[in-house]
Specification:
By secondary structure, the protein is mainly α. It has one domain. Helix content is 71%, strand content 0%. The chain has helices spanning 2-16, 31-40, 49-84. It is flat, with a radius of gyration of 17 Å.
Length: 86
């Protein structure tokens, strides 16, 4: 819970300055979001640089293996939605 309070405090303080951020424990996010954050995001505060590198080296190959399946699932859902309406 302490981490959640710290994350909320960081988000609140930056929002007061007009800076929108999401502070999350990257390890707790779904794989697709982990990949997106690693690809598009920016590390603001890293306690253990080696742990981050290890996390990246483990997560990126898993995400790249999974993304084609994820795309197919999204496409199938879109087709089903277009066909059935909801």
């Amino acid at each position: 819970m302490r981490a959640n309070r710290i994350a909320a405090a960081i988000e609140h303080r930056l929002a007061a300055r007009g800076i929108e951020v999401d502070v999350n424990d990257l390890r707790a996010l779904p794989l697709v979001l982990q990949h997106r954050v690693l690809r598009e995001g920016r590390a603001v505060f890293v306690v253990d640089r080696r742990a981050l590198v290890r996390f990246m080296s483990e997560t990126l190959p898993r995400a790249l293996d999974f993304l084609p399946f994820h795309r197919r699932m999204l496409e199938a859902s879109a087709r089903r939605l277009a066909r059935d309406g909801s």
